[in-house]
Design a protein that fits this description.
The chain is mostly helical. Helices cover 65% and strands 4% of the residues. Helix 13 (297-306) crosses helix 16, helix 21 runs antiparallel to helix 22 (473-489) and helix 44 (931-938) packs across helix 45.
Length: 977
């Protein structure tokens, strides 16, 4: 995602707050913003980036920096520095004017004649006069960096400036380190006073999120980083940008983890405050560092006691460390370092072997503290780490497995994967190959569920190395198939691994009743289908079904039926086969298998035009996957479900699913699908800037996104380009990518529809300009698009079966774009409505109304599609469509409001004698409807409407329908929606 200012990761909202403050100040609304946060969190860089943009627009930026101990001998130090910098950089004429307006400036600024004694001249007034004189001539930003170190005189001057805010074009920005302000520090009261003044606000910078840290790492390394490297950086820096930058010093973009140890500059920066502590407090901090995470003070006392430090000394040490900003309280009874990297630096102060006894003490303490739920998972994980560091590998292995089992039980899949990887790394010490293979399979599956394809591949690879094909061919067959699948998923192979699939079949052929043989045949069928060897695919699929029935294994039956349904997808049997395959998968409870079978089932349904049948099963699966902790497949499900919901115009539901998907981590393909749906939703709701950010991220995840098949990227990109006024780019994109859609020509047909829209927009603009050359160029490009589709089979828009209502709707949309007649658009609206494509129906309704207006149709005729589109756009919050419809309504003089029926008992006294039908007719009159429109809406004749209106006029004493409508409004009749 894009940052909040140039060269920054994240900080979008904070940069906007500062930018808005500066813009307001430039318009005569002075303000002060105090930017707070810990050291290294990026306060200075944020302010620098925002001020750089301000300077580019002609705003004067005065920058002063406070230094530690500066108050001793340098009053007004940061302000003098800021003003001297301005004198050096401003235009000479401007400097001359300002200095002329402030004759005493030389008493303040050394460069103008020396530093005067402030007993002769009130320097505070000079500071104020100089800043105001600059702000009179041009908008000005005064920055005081690290204000926590400001001398008292500078604090007074800043307070003076802020208290004097009137209509000056001045913004005051300061940065402040939170941890530098101990209890009783005078800055606390100074800040509290200033915050009570008008036009003063506070911006707090927190540490960066995982996504923001990923963006920072990409900026620093010059390329997209490996997700494990980002994990490592986040773990060790806790999202502190400065610490992250130091950690990445010398790290190449290809690295998948940080090197051991810490850079010298980082170590020195972190240890400076620790060295100022007394000896006992320093030792307590070292013991705390060995804990590895925020820990209970009671546990720290127990460990310290084992090393000869009493409870009172621990309490005193924590108080001193907290007061100096080294440690912070973390909830009830917990303590830890403000910067967790300090724990690493302190740990490095132990000589080899010295820390073993401390780890043993921590293990002993934690072993006596049983817990439940996630706390127990954490405790067992901590025990494993301490046992390992203490040299007790057997205890470490056992604790790791206990932690993994506990994590699995509470669906904490990421934690399970971590503990399993550690346990697997220790299996080499046991010498039990079969146990190690089983554990490695579990490691691979666990990492698959959390989307760590690389860790999964490594586990499958190690497991294969341990198994001898000659002595255990079935196990070798299973591992080979999973390894080959993993190699393809991680991009190690371009095409489907047919050779490996064939070898897997050969390994298991001697066991024809085994589930391994059935699964290998199903896998080979799938690979051959991707290789376009359809007859071979069907043959292997049939053999797989027979073998699966002999084995009786649910997973084998699921894979076999799905393979046959996929290979023979044009037969009626494919419907039953894909449903059967999904049913067997659901019986296994395996999220990964269920998802694969669900995708195969959905592929079949989509090709038959039964996309609406995909939504509810995917909803159920998403809930199941989230409950099971299967994040990787949950992201895929969110991407596919949100796409289908958008297709049927269910924007609010799609937004909820997208939010879920964006909160999860998954493989790049899955994450990109969610981003694409988010972009499409944002375009339809009028947030093209947000859409652009989502598309930017999707392109980072999937290089070459524009040409990638199967992610629905081309229609989303085309919709975005059209929404941002780039129809020519949209048509060019579609022309260059339609040829790759031969795997599923329905996708190619959708590109045709978008191409028709782009071409129609371009041709309309060309006609308005009377640009015949542009007309010819667009027509040629559109003809090329159609020609590319004509080379594929089946023919364009051919229905996938008798229940397919979508392809006829797509064809009607395409033909309406080409002809732009009201009859064609009316047909498109009707077909979209029948297919349930509410979004396309609403867009087509708007185009139908436009065509009717162009053809001079009666107002009442135009109103029908226009009001239909208006209702839908308002319902789903589609601002661009709403604006378009309202513009057409204004052009045709058509009221869009819907009649509102009053509650009879709550009707105004003068209207209570009306009958129910008369109330209904009155509500339509209030909404501006004609007799014909009222008759159609109420299923009565126009003559009957006239009779009801006559009764209304008689009962209310009015003389026209307009007068009775106005009376009803004055009496409190509910206004139309």
């Amino acid at each position: 995602m894009g940052g909040g200012a140039a060269g920054l990761a994240g900080r979008v909202e904070e940069a906007e707050v500062l930018g808005s403050a500066i813009r307001g100040a430039a318009e005569g609304r002075p303000c002060a913003v105090f930017v707070h946060g810990e050291a290294g969190v990026g306060k200075t860089r944020l302010v620098q980036a925002v001020c750089a943009e301000a300077a580019d627009s002609g705003i004067a930026v005065l920058w002063g920096r406070c230094v530690r101990f500066g108050a001793v001998d340098s009053p007004y130090g940061p302000l003098v520095s800021a003003l001297e910098g301005w004198v050096e950089s401003a235009e000479p004429a401007e400097v001359t004017e300002v200095l002329k307006a402030v004759p005493a400036a030389g008493e303040l600024l050394p460069s103008l004649g020396g530093f005067a004694d402030d007993r002769e001249v009130r320097l505070l007034s000079v500071v104020d006069a100089l800043v105001m004189a600059i702000a009179v001539r041009r908008p000005t930003v005064l920055v005081v960096d690290d204000v926590q170190w400001a001398d008292p005189a500078s604090r007074d001057a800043l307070a003076y400036l802020v208290a004097g805010f009137r209509r000056q074009r001045l913004a005051v920005l300061t940065t402040c380190r939170d941890e530098e302000l101990g209890t009783g520090h005078p800055m606390h009261s100074w800040l509290a006073d200033l915050r009570r003044l008008p036009a003063v606000s506070v911006v707090r910078l927190d540490r960066l999120s995982w996504d923001e840290t990923e963006q920072q790492v990409a900026m620093l390394l010059g390329g997209r980083p490996h997700h494990r490297l980002v994990d490592d950086v986040v773990r060790r820096s806790d999202g502190n940008p400065y610490l992250s930058e130091l950690l990445l010093e010398g790290v190449p973009v290809t690295a998948d983890e940080l090197p051991a140890g810490l850079p010298a500059e980082l170590s020195g920066a972190l240890l400076a405050a620790w060295h100022r502590l007394p000896a006992t407090a320093r030792e307590v901090m070292r013991l705390l560092a060995v804990a590895g995470r925020p820990t209970s003070i009671d546990d720290l006392r127990e460990v310290a006691s084992a090393h000869g430090i009493g409870p009172a000394a621990v309490t005193s040490a924590l108080a001193e460390a907290t007061n100096t900003g080294i440690t912070v309280a973390q909830g009830a009874g917990l303590c830890w370092f403000r910067h967790s990297l300090l724990a690493e630096v302190l740990y490095a102060t132990f000589v080899p072997g010295e820390a073993e006894s401390v780890h043993a003490a921590w293990a002993k303490t934690l072993a006596a503290r049983p817990a439940t739920g996630l706390d127990e998972v954490q405790r067992q994980g901590d025990l494993a780490l301490h046992y390992e560091a203490a040299g007790d590998l057997k205890a470490c292995f056992e604790a790791s497995l206990r932690a993994a089992d506990l994590a699995s039980g509470i669906k904490a899949r990421r934690e399970e994967a971590v503990h399993l990887r550690r346990a697997a790394s220790l299996m080499i010490h046991t010498g039990k190959v079969d146990d190690e293979v089983r554990l490695l399979e579990r490691v691979a599956r666990a990492n698959d569920l959390v989307g760590d394809g690389e860790a999964s591949f490594q586990a499958w690879s190690r497991a294969r190395e341990l198994v001898d094909e000659r002595t255990d061919p079935l196990q070798a067959c299973r591992l080979l198939r999973r390894w080959a699948d993993s190699a393809f998923a991680t991009g190690r192979t371009r095409g489907r691994p047919i050779a490996e699939a064939e070898h897997a079949v050969e390994l298991s052929r001697g066991f024809p009743d085994s589930e391994e043989y059935a699964e290998a045949l199903a896998y080979l069928s799938w690979c051959q289908w991707w290789n376009n060897e359809l007859e071979l695919s069907a043959t292997y699929a049939e053999e797989a079904v027979q073998a699966a029935h002999r084995s009786g294994a649910k997973a084998a039956l699921s894979l076999a039926y799905a393979a046959r349904g996929n290979a023979d997808r044009h037969s009626e049997r494919a419907d039953q086969d894909t449903a059967t395959g999904l049913g067997f998968a659901e019986e296994t409870g395996d999220p990964e298998l269920i998802w694969r079978m669900l995708v195969i089932r959905q592929n079949y349904l989509s090709r038959r035009g039964r996309v609406d049948e995909c939504i509810d099963p995917t909803k159920r699966f998403l809930a199941f996957a989230l409950n099971a902790g299967a994040q990787s497949v949950a992201v895929f499900a969110a991407g596919l479900l949100s796409h289908h919901l958008l297709m049927f115009g269910r924007l609010q539901e799609s937004a909820e699913v997208i939010r879920e998907g964006l909160s999860l981590s998954g493989l790049p393909n899955a994450a990109a699908m969610v981003r694409l749906s988010a972009a499409a939703l944002a375009v339809r709701q009028g947030d093209t800037d947000v859409a652009g950010l989502h598309l930017e991220r999707a392109k980072e995840l999937i290089p070459g996104l524009e040409s990638r098949v199967g992610l629905f990227s081309q229609p989303v990109l085309a919709e975005y380009l059209l929404a941002t006024g780039r129809a020519e780019e949209a048509l060019d994109l579609l022309s260059h990518t339609i040829g790759a859609q031969n795997v599923d020509t329905r996708d190619a047909d959708e590109l045709l529809v978008w191409g028709g829209r782009a071409a129609a927009e371009l041709m309309g603009a060309a006609r308005d300009r009377q640009d015949s050359r542009a007309l010819q160029t667009t027509q040629a490009a559109f003809d090329n698009l159609r020609a590319a589709r004509s080379t594929m089979q089946p023919a364009p828009f051919e229905p996938g079966g008798p229940a397919d209502l979508i392809q006829p709707a797509m064809q009607a949309l395409f033909e309406a774009s080409a002809t732009s007649t009201s009859a064609a658009w009316a047909d498109a609206v009707r077909r979209c409505a029948v297919a349930g494509l509410r979004w396309d129906e609403a867009v087509a309704s708007s185009r139908w109304a436009q065509a009717l207006l162009d053809e001079g149709a009666a107002r009442s005729v135009v109103a029908v599609p226009l009001r239909s589109a208006h209702r839908f756009a308002g319902e789903v919050g589609a601002r661009p469509l709403l604006n378009q419809v309202e513009a057409l309504a204004a052009l045709g003089g058509i009221p869009l409001q819907e009649p509102t029926q009053p509650v009879p008992d709550e009707a105004p006294e003068r209207l209570r004698s009306l009958t129910k039908r008369e109330h209904e007719v009155l509500s339509y009159l209030v909404a501006g409807r004609t007799y014909g429109e009222i008759a159609k809406a109420l299923f009565i004749s126009e003559k009957t409407v006239s009779v009801h209106v006559s009764n209304l006029l008689h009962k209310t004493g009015t003389s026209s329908r307009h007068e009775v409508a106005a009376l009803a409004v004055r009496l409190g009749h509910p206004p139309p929606d």
